[in-house]
Amino acid sequence: MKPVRIGTLWMLSLAVLACGDAGGDGAEPAGPAAPTREAVGNARVILTALDSVSADLVDGGGLASSGARLTLLAAYTAAADFDGDGVPERAALVTAEPGGDRVFMGIVGFRASADGAVQVADKLLGDRQEIHRFESVGDSLRVVLTTQGPDDEACCPTRRAEQIYRIDGGTWRLWRDNTID
Question: pTM here?
Fold first, then answer.
């Protein structure tokens, strides 16, 4: 998948939601099913690191009571048993735009439920990253992104990294963070 900046992701997300659960980089797990992209695009999302900003998504988007716009980027989802309990989850990339020039990105994990999808974990990635890859690898989520390095200002990330996450205790835990040259 070609790297895409947040400005164009909204339209891409709507297109992927319209297509359902086709495609994707990671292999879908066998056995119980992870929630579909459509189900997570119509779920309640809470980003705990942003003062628990929340919204009920409809077709991948929602407005929080604080005025922040939450958008599920359906092109960036992956399914696996990320917490090791035998039941698969779907990871999704979500943006929160609270106003101004800030665009926060987070990973949200969902599990299938009778009502579609229920959130089981979240993790704030930060502000203004560029996502290159978002995929399941075994029981882990692999995210390749350009993010802020130690000397970067918030506006201008330059560090390209590979980050590996798993769900642990209701949050996405960073298991490995490698700088890519």
Answer: 0.82
